[in-house]
Amino acid sequence: MFQEKNPVQFSGASKYVLDDELAQIVNISMALEMPLLLKGEPGTGKTMLAHAIAESLKMPLLILNVKSSMKLLEALYQYDTLTRLNDSRFGDSSRDVSNIEAYIKMGKIGQAFTTDTKTVLLIDEIDKADTDFQDDMLDVLDQMQFDIIEIDKTIRAKNRPVIIITSNAKKDLSDPFLGRCNFHHIAFPDADMMRRILDVHFPDQSSEVLNACIETFYRLRDIRGVEKKPATRELINWIRALKADPDFKPKALAKGVPYLGVLFKKSGDMGIVSQSLNRMRF
Amino acid sequence: MFVQFFYTLRERGIPITPTSFLRLHKALRLGLITSIEDFYTAARSILIKSERYFDLYDQIFAHHFKGVALTDPETVELTEVARALLDEWLKHPAQIAAALGVDEKQLKKMTPEELLRYFMDRLKDQTEEHHGGNKWIGTGGTSPVGHSGYHPGGMRVGGVSRSKSAIKVAMERRYRDYSLDGPITEAQMGEALKRLRRMVPHGPKDVVNVDKTIYETMRNAGEVEIVFDRRLTDRLKIILMIDNGGWSMDPYIDIVQTLFNYARSQFKDLKIYYFHNSIYTYVWSDPHRRYKPEPVEEFIRRDPDTRLIIVGDASMAPSELMHRNGAIYFDQREVIPSIDRLKFLAAVFRHAVWLNPQAEEEWHYTWTIGIIEQIFPMFELSLDGLEKAVKQLMARH
Fold first, then answer.
1. Closest CB to B194 among A25, A171, A190
2. Best exposed site among A156, B138, B222, B243 by fewest CB in 10 Å?
3. Same domain, B98 and B228
4. What is the domain partition of chain A in residue ranges?
């Protein structure tokens, strides 16, 4: 059923810098038709990857943001009893009240199954949900079908979506779940990679400024005792802030770091960082 | 194909299922894998399901496809030492060519393989630390094996490079910090300790119980009857006792600090006490062990469901543990030997563990560890040990 050879290959997108290893893994997962589980520190671009895949393969992107209290059914479909009750009382809608199917609304997984084109399905932060949710969901994704009990109908996927799952490793994932995914851990980008990422985001910025920023950024990340280290997102915002400041000169970074609040968001961290910056200076 | 590889991975303790191995073959059959580089990435993403095993995978991959010796976990790893040294030396590139008596043009011609071999040969030649020499590798010394920046056309050590062979990527061991025996971070500790919680209903009844509401409403013949419940909150009580005295604990300050920071920010009902070497009549709630003593006997009044975690190296002179006057401070006149205090605590708190920052292999060298191990279940203060300890603490007795 899904055996048609897939010629689409993923090779990066306009705002996403892809390393070869990850590109290879994405392509293999697509060819094997397996979900790809991405783990890694916040800010390493797990979620961005799905956006990039959708953009470069020109597929619509469906995002299922997992919440801790979520039940699998919400991700599949919902039976809108309230609207049906309302319609049966007042009868002013075009829907046929005796037809339950008119009141079934598809959730994100349901939508991915029923659309006519192939989609990218991003299941974001799966680790928030409990183990049952994860296992049940993988069953559905494995068989590419689910039942709607209310109307006794089985929904089969028209097109097998490209599935990307992200996890922040808040909880360990269960073994059966892991068994059904391909796995990759995105490490925090090193300075070279970061440079390429910044080049994509700030194409017209001089390299002197970017290099100085990257150097300072990694120095700040190395300060010990910081609870929440700044990630790529913070670095980009920080450079934006610096760009907006007309008085800013890259050489000044060696002396003091302006806009620390953009990089460090906990008051405790701010204290530790400014302390150790003071110490460095003397 | 690669059956031996599969079994080596399994033997080394990476949980791999036959299903995933078959899936790898499916990928091979589909023609997705054309080079050993592809195989390295593909096999890793299909077979290995946690970044903790990436490091081990790298080692086994290098072993299997390049014949790199697999080190036993206990022995010092030559490659790792070499890598660390290499990184250090590479900071002084200017001296490289001169010190080796090889000129830069010659260096340019060497392939990365030759460079690596050259480096390893040099390393084996070298038996003592060497500074400023001109043949061996040492601080101020030089070698053609270096960061791409220093060696013209050379290989890169550390960092990420795009044109590197899979084996070298594997040998780089980028994932060492994520492996089970890598340094423990607060986040990892958090992951291990997350399961240490006990949810009980507490506080005002402010959550609607839908199922019960429907049931009660039906019983009430359709008249709405809303049922409220209390919220579930974590009510786990924890007592943490830390050995913070003496030089024997000094090497472990960092890791204990990490544990302590995490515990303080995460557990609502946490009491911390300090002791030195072993527990006698008192423990103290101030780190100086001077102002706020707490008699150990008083702990019998505490909730017996409290989880007791003792952190210490459990290493002391046997007399400190066994004798009635064991305490090393002259002003502490003891009547009961320390071991009986420990037994007392173990009897009061059913859920108790001892976390030992010393590596487990070294435990049998110390007599008192063996004795204390019989009183408290003892675990290594590592990711693995912490997980086991949590399991022990949450087990029903």
1. A171
2. B222
3. no
4. 20-69+113-186, 191-281
Nearest residue of chain A to residue B176 (CA atoms): A187
Residue B64 included in any domain: yes
Q: Kindly state whether residues B23 and B167 are assigned to the same domain.
A: yes
Q: Which one of B42, B49, B194 has the shortest CB-CB distance to A28?
A: B42
B191 contacts A178? CB cut-off 8 A: no
User: Which of B45, B61, B168, B255 is the best mutation test for A, with the most CBs of A within 10 A?
Assistant: B45
> How many angstroms separate the CA atoms of B32 and B87, rounded?
35
- Distance between CA B219 and CA B225 in Å, rounded? 9
Please give the mean pLDDT across all residues of chain B: 70
Does the residue B357 lie in any domain?
Answer: yes
**Is the CB of B257 inside 8 Å of chain A's CB atoms?**
no
Rg, C-alpha atoms of chain B: 29
What residues of chain B lie within 8 A of the CB of A171, using their CB? 191, 194
Whether B175 and A39 lie within 8 Å, measured CB to CB: no
> Which of B233, B254, B277 is the C-terminal boundary of a domain?
B233
pLDDT tens track for B190-232? 666 766 766 677 778 888 888 888 888 888 887 778 888 888 7
Segment A43-71 mean pLDDT: 84
The helix/strand/coil state of B283 is strand
Same structural domain for residues B60 and B107? Answer: no
Cα distance between residue B281 and residue B334, in whole Å: 7
In a shared domain, residues B245 and B371: yes
Token digits of residue A195: 């440079």
Average pLDDT (A70-84) is 84
Residue the block writes with tokens 């859920």? B351
> Do B44 and B118 fall within a single domain?
no
Range in B24-33, B155-164, B238-247 the model is least confident about: B155-164
Of chain B, the percentage scoring pLDDT greater than 70 comes to 61
Q: Name residue, tokens 């795009």.
A: B162
Give me the domain span that covers residue B84: 1-90+159-179
For position B151, what pLDDT does the model report? 35
The answer to whether the beta carbons of residues B45 and A178 sit under 8 Å apart is no
Fold topology of A20-69+113-186: Rossmann fold (3.40.50)
pLDDT tens per residue, range B313-355: 888 877 777 776 666 555 555 667 888 888 888 888 888 899 8
Nearest-by-Cβ selection for A32 from B15, B26, B159? B26
Asked, for residue B105, whether it belongs to a domain, the answer is yes
How many domains does the structure of chain B reveal?
4
Residues 220-249 of chain A with CB under 8 A from chain B are 227
Instruction: Answer yes or no: do A172 and B191 touch at CB < 8 A.
Output: yes
> What residues have CB less than 8 Å from A172, skipping those under 6 apart?
B191
Query: What dihedral angle (degrees, nearest 10) is formed by the CA atoms of A16, A17, A21, A26?
Result: 10
pLDDT at B69: 61
Q: Is B30 on the interface with A (CB under 8 A)?
A: yes
The predicted model scores a pTM of 0.57
Three-state DSSP state, A277: helix
- Which residue of A29, A179, A192 is in closest CB contact with B17? A179
Interval A248-268 mean pLDDT: 77
Q: Which residue among A39, A185, A190 places its CB closest to the CB of B160?
A: A190
- Do residues B62 and B123 both lie within one domain? no
Question: Does residue B85 lie within any of the structural domains?
Answer: yes
